[in-house]
């Protein structure tokens, strides 16, 4: 298995960046995770558009042309023979002597790795989530490699037997999971997810699900929901490039609905898989 590091394909075990890389020193970088199904990249354009926006907001230059980025992704997937799994790509501001200010002349670092993975079985069985305070910074719309709050949240979830932690803002409203967007189907039948803002990462999967919901005539509302509404929900699920639409069957110590994956979640998962294996992939 190879990794891509700054223009070279190298064996994964030897792939490395410099100790003064600003990604390592300052978390001064952004990343993307794109799902691969049947050898094809799902929602690639959406992911590259988001990468472009994040790089622009942080004033990090593209490490190569977008066309070349697409080529490298395909080459690495081909070299590693990945049919189903994911590709991880990270761009940092580059390597320079440690100084908070932007370096005058540093070339951005680009690394990519792949991993094989089938769609997790829990996407069908359903998962538990816990809720924790959202302790992140105020630009959660940027997909930066500064993920310490998410690391702590996911570890706490794992230690408490849950798949994910839903982060809750100071007003008591759910923002999102540590690595996924959060959804509920309310008691009166509306699909609800928090609107895109600086408070959440606008998931590419989230955007696809909203399009699918609109096409299928599902009533949805983009608005914040609080814990009381979540506990009373008929259904709940999380979405991300790697978990697709994964039903949530327990939030803290409360069963969601009858404690099994709900009909809408299952329907959206099937529709998303069809999208992933069809027109959305390239
Ligand atoms: N929210 C956060 C904080 C994430 O880290 C992720 C993905 O890792 C998502 C949402 C889901 O985004 P996407 O659907 O683009 O994978």
UniProtKB/TrEMBL annotation:
Keywords, alphabetical: Amino-acid biosynthesis, Aminotransferase, Branched-chain amino acid biosynthesis, Transferase
Reaction catalyzed: L-valine + 2-oxoglutarate = 3-methyl-2-oxobutanoate + L-glutamate; L-leucine + 2-oxoglutarate = 4-methyl-2-oxopentanoate + L-glutamate; L-isoleucine + 2-oxoglutarate = (S)-3-methyl-2-oxopentanoate + L-glutamate
Family that this chain belongs to: Belongs to the class-IV pyridoxal-phosphate-dependent aminotransferase family.
Protein name: Probable branched-chain-amino-acid aminotransferase
Pfam families for the chain: Aminotran_4
Enzyme Commission no: 2.6.1.42
Lineage: superkingdom: Bacteria
CDD domains, per the entry: D-AAT_like
Pathway where it operates: Amino-acid biosynthesis; L-valine biosynthesis; L-valine from pyruvate: step 4/4; Amino-acid biosynthesis; L-leucine biosynthesis; L-leucine from 3-methyl-2-oxobutanoate: step 4/4; Amino-acid biosynthesis; L-isoleucine biosynthesis; L-isoleucine from 2-oxobutanoate: step 4/4
Gene Ontology MF terms: D-alanine-2-oxoglutarate aminotransferase activity
Function description: Acts on leucine, isoleucine and valine.
Transferase as UniProt keyword: yes
């Amino acid at each position: 298995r190879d990794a891509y590091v700054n223009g070279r394909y190298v064996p994964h075990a030897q792939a490395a960046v410099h100790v003064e890389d600003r990604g390592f020193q300052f978390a001064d970088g952004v990343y993307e995770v794109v799902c691969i199904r049947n050898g094809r990249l799902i929602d690639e354009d959406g992911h590259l558009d988001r990468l472009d926006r994040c790089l622009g907001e942080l004033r990090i230059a593209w490490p190569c042309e977008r066309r070349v980025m697409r080529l490298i992704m395909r080459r690495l997937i081909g070299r590693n023979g990945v049919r189903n799994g994911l590709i991880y790509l990270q761009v940092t501001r580059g390597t320079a002597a440690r100084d908070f200010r932007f370096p005058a002349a540093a070339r951005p670092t680009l690394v990519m790795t792949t991993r094989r993975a089938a769609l997790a079985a829990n996407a069908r069985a359903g998962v538990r989530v816990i809720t924790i305070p959202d302790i992140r910074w105020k630009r959660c719309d940027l997909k930066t490699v500064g993920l310490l709050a998410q690391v702590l949240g996911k570890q706490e979830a794992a230690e408490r037997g849950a798949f994910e932690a839903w982060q809750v803002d100071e007003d008591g409203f759910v923002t999102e999971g540590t690595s996924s967007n959060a959804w509920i189907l309310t008691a009166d039948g509306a699909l609800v997810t928090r609107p895109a803002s600086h408070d959440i990462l606008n998931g590419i999967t989230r955007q696809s699900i909203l399009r699918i919901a609109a096409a299928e005539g599902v009533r949805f509302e983009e608005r914040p929901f609080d814990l009381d509404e979540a506990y009373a929900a008929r259904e709940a699920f999380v979405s991300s490039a790697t978990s697709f639409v994964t039903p949530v069957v327990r939030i803290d110590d409360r069963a969601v609905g009858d404690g099994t994956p709900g009909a809408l979640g299952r329907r959206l998962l099937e529709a998303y898989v069809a999208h992933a294996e069809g027109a959305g992939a390239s």
